Structure prediction request, 440 residues.
Amino acid sequence: MFWGGKMTALAVVFSVLALIIGGLPRIKVQAPYGFGLWPLKLISAALAPFGLAAGALGLGFALLASSLPAAILAGLGLLLSGEYFLQIVRVHEDFEGAFGPDWQRCIPPERESGLLARRWSAWLPAGPDPGWQRDIPFWIIPGSERKLLCDLWTPPAGVRPSGLAFIYLHGGNWYFLDKDVLTRPFFRHLADQGHVVMDVAYRLFPETDLAGMAADAKRAVAWMKANGSIYGVDARKIVLGGASAGGHLALLAAFAPYQPEMTPEDLKDSDLSVRAVISEYGPTNLAACYFHTNQNKTTRAIRSRTVAVGVPEAGSNPGSPGQKAPRGRLGLNKPSVYGAFVNILGRHLDEIPGVYACFSPDTYVHPGCPPTLQIKGKDDLVTPAPAMLDLHQKLLAAGVPSVSVVYPHTDHAFDLALPQVSPAAQASWYVVDRFLSLVG
Prediction:
């Protein structure tokens, strides 16, 4: 009796654990009120392999204890975790559509050994320690001592440099976070393949506006082109990328490298083109993101509390390539996840639709855009997956090599949560590995 009760208790514990891990990723939440549950969803999705193990243990203990209710709980948890895991590892990216049917042969043989062999492994092996230089200035604001800093990750000793540099722009809703936040495993992984990683700390709101942030991304590109040879970088192999807000800025800078209002005077004679661009869950259309995050409902009370200088009339569109974007005092409110665009851009979408279009990457799609990789979770509570797929289709229509990957039951910032075990994080690394090898 004692052992039977203990077996039942263990069965219930493991079964409930499996049920929580397998069930939480399936709960769809909306911004801004879903942010409380969002971290739990990220952790549960990352722990899906442990959900499988917990479900199997729970089922085993339930059978030993002859407990039908515990067996049902364990079976359900096992099913949910297993289904999520299999859905993630079965997502196949369309490299063939972007790079042709023989795309695998285009990966240099010397690079294949450094790529992830599969979309998920029980634990990622630790490679040799790469080089890591911190707080390197890449621009000093004229007339001040304010320096923009970056960290550089370089290949470990004994690893042949690929000649490729990956410039990374962090997320944070355009007004918080910094370089070196939960990205070390990813950067180590890339450096171990011979790539150089430039982790950029660009200016944030309210120090600057979106145009200034995009300009900082371009300054990082210009700096790498001027200094990359020191680190073994080929100036023709610079890839710009980022996550969330950083992904948005990367797309803007890559698609519109010479757009006047996002290109300051000090860069007008610089080569700002990049070999490719990677956006991980970055906004592609600010109007779509505005509605997706319910800013039309949660920020109406601050309609008259912001000021924008030079904002065009509603209905006009200054966002077309070659036209000027408004500049001036943008977003005087205290930053808030409840109304990022209203704070940063100064007004609501219906008041300045042209401004929202101006800072939307999909405005600048043209045949000269660099090859593009976009990765997103289908249940992203910040950036809508349909808008990403719309950009993907626009790029394909323009003849631009484009790869888009959407992971089911996966939310914003999934790649930063426990990547050593997370199915979605590892699957995204698998995709990035091959994309960089193809473009580099």
Remarks:
- The CA atoms of residues 146 and 404 lie 37 Å apart.
- The beta strands are 131-140, 147-154, 165-169, 196-200, 238-243, 276-280, 372-377, 402-407.
- Residues 303-335 have pLDDT under 50 and may be disordered.
- The longest strand covers residues 131-140.
